[in-house]
Design goal:
- This protein starts with 14 loop residues before the first strand and ends with a helix.
- By secondary structure, the chain is an alpha/beta fold.
- The protein contains twelve helices and 21 strands.
- The structure holds ligand LLP.
- The site of ligand LLP has 20 residues, from helix 10.
Length: 441
């Protein structure tokens, strides 16, 4: 089919429409995949995930000539197969919990390349992370620094740490994911002087080795300027620490946050170009400030996996409320995609097997949970013929979907199916009702 008719639909490079009018994802017919694996189902394009890792790695290599790292922020999507992919692609990882650490370890990930985040690492978390040989702890607060130091002392080791700092930047994204502002639960604020106090404190500890600083300004950021502003503030802080304490940071971790297209309205970011600009800026400013150029880390999550994922659903009912609106209910909802309910996030939802039909029905696509707020998207254009049994595809669901899924209403979580080289294989199987009672005593 002529894909020019689908300009607003095919927002990602791995989408197409075949002669039968079926949506294809990673070259595979979504109708066949739904038959084979059932619905709802998360599909992940493994080839695209690997291509994204390589694009990031080569951008960082070009920009920093071997003095940079790319860490996959695994909160975006975390299961064994993904850590295996990251190991094979020579990526580092960002982990935030014992669960993510354990999954990575079980996938054979080399944990010296892991950075451990979170704003409240318990003593138990700290022990587990050290047992696993996590390379770097990103310390968020003073209590945590002390606890890391204590545990390292008891093991007779010196643990590498970075300090999480808030540069005081508003990245113009939605409130729940803006983390770089001074008024944030994360990190030590630079503008208030607390970052400097924390640096002095970290340098006084005997069993931690301060390696550098971290900042993450927010998520779904399209304005590349934001990263330059963050780099500017962080490098000046590094220069200030050198002048004040004689401490020269070896690592500057700039976090993640690059935005991805959820709808045709979102711009497409050129990651290589953006990282190139940040690179040039860092090389120039480091020289200007008289500091050694630190090793620069990026921590992308969403921009590695988001548009490598789609979710397929089956329609159960089409309910027209005369004079109001039409609801199209599907066999999933806020349990597999909480993002509209939580953030009012925009999505593109397509009639997977009726791509050639005119979209002359406007409907709210609703989930199956007992809650009015369980909506996947409002005002979705769909064919008038939409009926029970039809297949809908929600695009850009590879990040923060499976990892934020729940069992609300005791609904089992969908499986995750990986697509690679024209083949499909299950990476996470569908939950069963027995899984749901597995913890009940
Ligand atoms: N590094 C740190 C320290 C982070 O906190 C995050 C995301 C990332 C990296 C990765 O950011 P990304 O490249 O994925 O934007 N649940 C929300 C997103 C929360 C992001 C939290 N931190 C959502 O569904 O939009």
């Amino acid at each position: 089919m002529d894909t020019r008719n689908f300009r607003n639909d095919l927002i990602c490079e791995n989408l197409s429409v075949n002669e039968a009018g079926h949506l294809c994802f990673a070259g595979q017919d979504t109708g066949d995949l739904a038959k084979q694996f059932g619905t709802p189902v998360y599909l992940m394009d493994e080839d695209l995930i690997r291509a994204r890792c390589r694009a990031y790695l080569s951008a960082v290599e070009n920009a920093f000539g071997g003095r940079g790292r790319v860490l996959y922020a695994s909160k975006a999507a975390s299961y064994k197969r993904l850590y295996e992919i990251m190991r094979e692609e020579n990526m580092g990882i960002d982990v935030v919990s014992q669960g993510e650490i354990y999954t990575a370890v079980r996938a054979g990930f080399p944990m010296q390349n892991a950075f451990f985040h979170s704003n409240n690492k318990t003593d138990d978390d700290i022990r587990a992370a050290m047992d696993a040989g996590v390379g770097y702890f990103v310390a968020d607060n003073t209590e945590e620094l002390l606890a890391i130091d204590r545990e390292a002392a008891s093991r007779g080791i010196r643990q590498n740490v970075l300090l999480r700092l808030t540069p005081g930047i508003d990245p113009h994204t939605y409130e729940a994911v803006a983390t770089g502002k001074v008024d944030s639960k994360f990190g030590f604020a630079i503008p208030t002087g607390q970052a400097e106090t924390a640096t002095a404190f970290a340098l006084s500890l005997k069993n931690t080795a301060l390696c550098g600083f971290h900042s993450h300004v927010g998520s779904q950021v399209f304005d590349a300027e934001v990263f330059l502003r963050a780099a500017n503030i962080m490098l000046r802080f590094i220069a200030q620490s050198k002048a004040k304490f004689g401490f020269e940071a070896q690592i500057l971790n700039l976090g993640g946050g690059f935005g991805v297209p959820y709808t045709a309205r979102n711009p497409k970011l050129d990651i290589a170009k953006n990282i190139g600009e940040v690179g040039e800026f860092i090389v120039r400013l480091s020289a200007e400030l008289g500091i050694a150029q630190p090793e620069v880390c990026f921590e992308p999550g969403r921009s590695i996996v988001a548009d490598a994922g789609i979710t397929l659903y089956t329609v159960g009912s089409v309910k027209e409320i005369t004079g109001y609106r039409t609801y199209v209910s599907v066999d999933g909802g806020m349990t597999d995609n909480i993002r509209y309910a939580l953030y009012g996030a925009s999505y593109t939802i397509l009639p997977a097997l009726k791509m050639g039909e005119p979209r002359n029905l406007t409907a709210d696509v609703a989930g199956r949970c007992c809650e009015s707020g369980d909506i996947l998207q409002k005002n979705v254009p769909l064919p008038r013929s939409t009926a029970r049994g039809d297949l809908l595809a929600c695009l850009t669901t590879g990040a923060y979907h499976y990892s934020m899924a729940s069992n609300y209403n005791r609904i089992p979580r969908p499986p995750v199916v990986m697509l690679r080289g024209g083949k499909a294989s299950v990476a996470v199987r569908r939950e069963t009702v027995d899984d749901l009672i597995a913890l009940d005593i």
